[in-house]
Write a structure and sequence with these properties.
The chain is an alpha+beta fold and 412 residues long. It contains 11 helices and 5 strands; from the N terminus they run αααααααααβαββαββ. The chain folds into 2 domains: 7-194, no CATH class; 288-412, Heat Shock Protein 90, CATH 3.30.565. Strands 1-2-3-5-4 form a 5-stranded mixed β-sheet, with helices on one face.
Amino acid sequence: MTRAEYPWLLPSVMADPPDPDLPGRQGRTRPRRTVRDWVVDTFVFLAAALIGALASDASAQAGNSEAVVLADQLLGAVACCALWVRRRAPVALAASLVAVSAVAPAAGGALMLGLFSLAVHRPFRPVAVIGVLAMVSGAVQALVRPDPSASFLISTVAGVVLVLLMVGWGMLVRARRQLVLALRERARRAEAEAALRAEQAQRLAREAIAREMHDVLAHRLTLLSVHAGALEFRPDAPPAEVGRAAGVIRDSAHEALQDLRQIIGVLRAPDDGGGDGPALAASHTLYPLGALVGESREAGMRVTLDNTVTDPDGVPAATGRTAYRIAQEGLTNARKHAPGTDVTLSLSGGPGEGITVRVDNEAPAGEVPKVPGSGQGLIGLTERATLAGGRLEHGVRGDGGFRVRAWLPWSV
């Protein structure tokens, strides 16, 4: 926010730039005088000099001696010159002008402008103290240097009103500057918070992409590994079996590419607000569970599907996608960590009751294969189920098998 961009936020021509005592300015070095600063300071000096000249002329017409008038003019000139330091030492300047103006009416203009600068640059307490002293100084001046054209009471009241006007004007300018600084700080804070939110959104998007890539490709690549391993260890297999395995490898690779294209399409397409793109919403629901089980059986797994969901067509898209991912990850883990065992995939539930997904596999006959990065998929599934409003539990059963059980909400 600059003066050129927001001139309407600046105080009037009599106002000064924010000083170090204003909020948000502590610890900053004072900037060099600008052209505007020189113009304002020159105008302030000339205004004080004009008021002092008028007061000196009135003093001469009141019948004072030439020595008194000359002393009055000298003190007034010194007071006007002292206004050039009003930004650096407003308290000391105002206090000095209060004392001088008590005996020199020509310093009255400089005192008023000094009070204005004091109210702009300093908080209320020193302004109130010096303002009261200025009122007393006005009363002393009316008593020591009386004006023949006005009574003591009128002169005193006029002095009090002028002091209140200048102090009130300065406090108004200070309050407006504080408001500008507060708005500027709020804008900076809002920009910083927006940047943090954008960074967090990018991080969450990366995590979602990583989970989706793992859920989609791990299943397909596991099938490829199983069938490729079978071809490697059985080179003398019948041509029909080799052809069938090669076809499964080809189909799995094709499906993996299709899933990868869908994920890339989701990244390029606008988000529909549900966390998954339209391509995933259309394909990864409860409907392809049969195909998922069929692929696992073709890979040599013994899988039993028990689907008793009362209304599969009415399953919400987000719930269906989450249930599909849990089933897919459970079968993939059973294939990697417990090959050759019986696996049971069961789904049950209905509207208002929720959906329960269970994947059970028997204990492996031999040593459990050690797969690098084990457990990361279950961590992602637990987070996915929690975000969907459900829960997921997994662990070793009493007979040595492994169970994954998840419950997902299904509102009516």
